[in-house]
Amino acid sequence: MHDTLFRALDLIEPGDLVLYHGSITDWHGLYLAAPCDCTPCVRDYNRGDNDVRYRLIDPFEEEPDAPTLRCARRHSISRSTANA
Ligand SMILES: [Zn+2]
C-alpha cells in the first residue's frame, strides 16, 4: 500500500489494538488502528506532515458499514497490551 503512511506511524502499526481515550468520550474503548484514509489526512501524509491520524475500527462490530472513528490523533490513543 502506501509505504510513506506506515513509516510515519511511529509506534502504532496498522492492525494494532489500541485504546482510544480522546475527547469523544462515547468512543472510548478498544479498536483496531489503521491509517486514516480520508482526503485531508492523505493530503497531509503526502505533504510529509508528521501529525499522523488514525481510523479506529471496532473489532467486535459485525456490520460492514458500521461507523468508524476517523482522524483520531496519536495522543488520543495508546497501544493496547491486549495483543502483546
Ligand atoms: Zn482523516
Explain how this protein is built.
This protein is an alpha+beta fold and 84 residues long. 15% of the residues lie in helices and 29% in strands. It has a single domain, classed as SH3 type barrels. It contains two helices and five strands. A five-stranded antiparallel beta sheet has the order 4-3-2-1-5, with no helix packed on it. A hairpin with an 8-residue loop joins strand 1 and strand 2. The N and C termini lie far apart (25 Å). The mean pLDDT is 83. The structure holds zinc ion (ZN). The site of zinc ion has 7 residues, from helix 2 and strand 4.
Secondary-structure topology with pairs:
Elements: H1 3-7, E1 17-20, E2 29-35, H2 39-46, E3 53-57, E4 69-73, E5 77-79
Antiparallel strand pairs: 1-2, 1-5, 2-3, 3-4
The chain binds zinc ion.
Zinc ion is lined by residues 36, 38, 40-41, 53, 70-71.
Indicate the CATH class.
Mainly Beta
Q: What does the largest sheet look like? A: 5 strands, antiparallel
Number of contiguous helices? 2
What is the name of the CATH architecture? Roll
Shape type:
globular
Radius of gyration: 12 Å
Low-confidence stretches: none
Compute the number of structural domains.
1
With strands numbered from the N-terminus, the spatial order across the biggest sheet is 4-3-2-1-5
- CATH fold label: SH3 type barrels
Helix content: 10-25%
Mean pLDDT over the residues:
83
Order of helices and strands: HEEHEEE
User: Which small molecules are bound?
Assistant: zinc ion
Q: How many β-strands, per DSSP?
A: 5
Distance between the termini: 25 Å
Coarse structural class: alpha+beta
Percent of residues in beta strands:
25-35%
